[in-house]
Amino acid sequence: MRKNGNSLDQRTFDKLSRLYVIALSTIALSVVVSQVLIRKHLRDQESDSTVINVAGRQRMLSQKLTKEIVSLAAEDDLGKALRIKDSIKATLALWQVSHESLQSGNDSLGLPGNNSVVVTNLFKRLNVSFKTISEASKRIVETIEERPTFKIGSYVDDITTIKKTEADFLSVMDKIVNQYDREADEKVNWLRRLELLLTALTLLILLFEFLFIFWPTAKSVKQTLTELLVAEKKAKKMAYDADVLSVAKEKSIKELRALSHAMDETLLFARILSNGSVVHMGNKFSRLFKFNRFKASANFSEILSIHENERMIIDDLISKHKKTGWQGEVKATTKDGEGIWLEMAIIPFNPTDDTSELLIIASEITERKEAQLEIEHLTKTRFEEKMSQQKIISSKIIENQEKEQNRIAKDVHDGIGQMLTGLKYNLESIDISDIEKTASKIDHLKELTTNIIKGVRTATFNLTPPELTDHGIVPAITKLTQELSKLTGKQIVFYNKTNFNQRLDSLTEINIYRITQEAINNAIKYADSTHILVSLAHSENLLSIVIDDNGKGFDPDKVKHVKNGDGGMGMTFMQERITYINGRLFLSSEPGKGTRVTLNIPL
């Protein structure tokens, strides 16, 4: 049965091979025939464009020839007339060559000369006009060449003949060009039909082969492959069942050897007992700590360090984590006294049922640990410096707050207090019986009261305005600019570009207000400015406030700390506040070009 099956499969394969050869040969034959027919037709059409171009050029040359002869008749200058004659002669020669080539063919011009019956008959009609114009032109040229001192009357009849004949020539030549064009279009249409026919024929052949050859063959091949796959699967299973144990054993041995070699050469690897005695130590471990691997017995902690305290730490780790395992950093010291940091893992495992060991896998991290310790030291130093600087800034803030409170108390005592005292004395000195003096004192009291009100407003202006608490930052800055403009006489303008009207956190608003107030006060007191513009704009995530002045400006690189005297902390004050609300402050200034302070606060 097996033999008969093999014979049947061979016969089926031979039959399929013959069918595939026939199918592929048929497709190849159809492609070759299509290419031969199409290429033959394309070769016949290669010269069509050249023929049409040359035929069209003939019309132009006849018109040019006529034009040159007419211009020759109107020319009185002998030199110019001779040059026109030479041009006529060259044009006539090209015109004649092209005319003859269109009929008889010319390889150099790419003209085949295989005209149709219609074109040939048209050329027969055209030859009459061509001959008349050609002979008349030759006579004119010969007349001029024989008698350079010519006169128009010598060839006026030939010019008249050329003019009369040109229209007939152009009319017939137009018909020839149009006929060439029609014949070329017919060839293209014929080629298109041929291509469609060949494409349809090829598709029919492919469809026939698919239905009667490829599809039945595919089903037969699929069935055969299915049978082969089933047989192959059975054979593989039998072979697998026979070899699986030996292959698995050999693979395990190879993997263990490779892993052991890799760990010995690349890792700090060791095997120890639970009491710390070394069972095996890898090559790299041995080289690093100069340990003789063939030594009868040794304690792991004694190999890793020469210091007693470090040995105690290692022994303690092994004792505590011999059942659970451990991973971390360990300090070791070689026999040469070199300190080494190890990132070490202790992994418990049981090589047999009645024994337990610990795997030690480590990597040297001395450089990384030293860098980490250095970073920690630098971080601690930097933190201490920052805290020291923060204490200085805080003390200055408290100091300036005290100065501000003293200034307000002094303004109230020296200004408002004295004016109130004067008001009291004036009120007590009023004598109602003396109406004239009483009226004068009342006018003086009104003026004194106005000054007291102005003094109170000035003294309390730097305190938190009610607009900030009640309505927010925009009304507060609006009020600030209006009041400062009135008090100082300077043009201080606030412009809300994006109509911002949101309320922010109260601490954020008071800090924004104080920074803006400080920047405006600096522009008033130190910039000698006359115009100050405060502009506000915002986006989805950012609020930006810009304070511009037209003052004298300064060089920011030469000024490390800008203080505003009795009014506050200057740039230190502003920078501390903007940092508190996670914003950023930018200062831009040049001598003679004013100053710009920009606040960017996240929303």
TrEMBL record:
EC number(s) per entry: 2.7.13.3
A Pfam cross-reference name: HATPase_c
Residue ranges constituting the PAC domain according to the UniProt record: 326-377
Cofactor: [4Fe-4S] cluster
Membrane association type: Multi-pass membrane protein
Subcellular localization: Cytoplasm; Membrane
Reaction catalyzed: ATP + protein L-histidine = ADP + protein N-phospho-L-histidine
SMART domains: HATPase_c (SM00387)
Domain of life assignment: Bacteria
EC class name: transferase
Histidine kinase domain: residues covered: 512-603
Transmembrane residue ranges: 20-38, 196-215
Keywords: 4Fe-4S, ATP-binding, Cytoplasm, Iron, Iron-sulfur, Kinase, Membrane, Metal-binding, Nucleotide-binding, Phosphoprotein, Transferase, Transmembrane, Transmembrane helix, Two-component regulatory system
Role summary: Member of the two-component regulatory system NreB/NreC involved in the control of dissimilatory nitrate/nitrite reduction in response to oxygen. NreB functions as a direct oxygen sensor histidine kinase which is autophosphorylated, in the absence of oxygen, probably at the conserved histidine residue, and transfers its phosphate group probably to a conserved aspartate residue of NreC. NreB/NreC activates the expression of the nitrate (narGHJI) and nitrite (nir) reductase operons, as well as the putative nitrate transporter gene narT.
Protein's UniProt name: Oxygen sensor histidine kinase NreB
